[in-house]
């Protein structure tokens, strides 16, 4: 596989995810990504670029209990830190492939977004329809980014509904004729 015109060839059929200056190298074992990372470091050096050891991290996602042992990854006289989670393109990835952690992160981002437009909710200059459009296009987009990859439990669905209802209550105000449970 060639990457970015640098002539970097990665071993076998393993994957490389690249976006701007974020590169993720995936493999079936700790050895394959390490070999591919070594090839990447060598290729970047040939083009005059340098891989920052301080910014380079690795994570092992495996059901194998032996994979949970700490492995030091040394490449080009640099050691890379092992992490339990990291954020890639707005999605929090964990070594346990934990969807609830990603949902919590998305809800925190949605809450920050909600509070950043707090003054709009109380504005009488904006119609309720416009406030709903703001809620759908800005806030829900932040919360639901990447949701097509989630498989939700009832508890997680409830957390998302609670957040959405909080925003809608702020827009419409409390309902006095509300039926319990709806």
How is this structure best summarized?
This protein has two domains: 68 residues, no CATH class; 76 residues, no CATH class. It is built from five helices and seven strands. The longest helix has 19 residues.
Notes on the protein architecture:
The chain folds into 2 domains: 16-83, no CATH class; 97-172, no CATH class. The longest helix is centred in the last third of the chain and has 19 residues, at 154-172. The strands form 3 sheets. The chain has a 3-stranded mixed sheet with strand order 3-5-4, with helices on one face. A two-stranded antiparallel ribbon has the order 1-2. A two-stranded antiparallel ribbon has the order 6-7. With 182 residues, the chain is α+β, with helices and mostly antiparallel strands. The chain contains 5 helices and 7 strands; from the N terminus they run E-E-H-E-E-E-E-E-H-H-H-H. Strand 4 and strand 5 form a beta hairpin. It starts with 15 loop residues before the first strand and ends in a 10-residue tail after the last helix. The relative contact order is 0.09.
């Amino acid at each position: 596989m060639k990457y970015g015109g640098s002539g970097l060839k990665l071993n076998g059929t393993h994957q490389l995810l690249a976006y701007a200056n974020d590169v993720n190298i995936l493999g079936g074992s700790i050895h394959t990504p390490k070999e591919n990372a070594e090839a990447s470091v060598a290729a970047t050096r040939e083009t005059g670029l340098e891989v920052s050891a301080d910014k380079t991290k690795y994570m092992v996602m495996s059901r194998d209990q032996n994979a949970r042992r700490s492995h030091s990854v040394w490449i080009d006289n640099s050691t890379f830190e092992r992490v339990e989670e990291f954020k890639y393109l707005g999605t929090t990835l964990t070594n346990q492939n934990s969807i609830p952690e990603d949902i919590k992160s998305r809800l925190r981002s949605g809450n920050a977004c909600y509070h950043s437009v707090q003054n709009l909710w109380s504005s009488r200059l904006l119609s309720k329809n416009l406030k709903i459009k703001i809620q759908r296009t800005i806030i829900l987009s932040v919360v639901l980014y990447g949701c097509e990859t989630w498989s939700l439990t009832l508890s997680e669905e409830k957390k998302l509904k609670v957040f959405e209802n909080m925003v809608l209550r702020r827009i419409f105000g409390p309902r006095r004729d509300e039926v319990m449970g709806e």
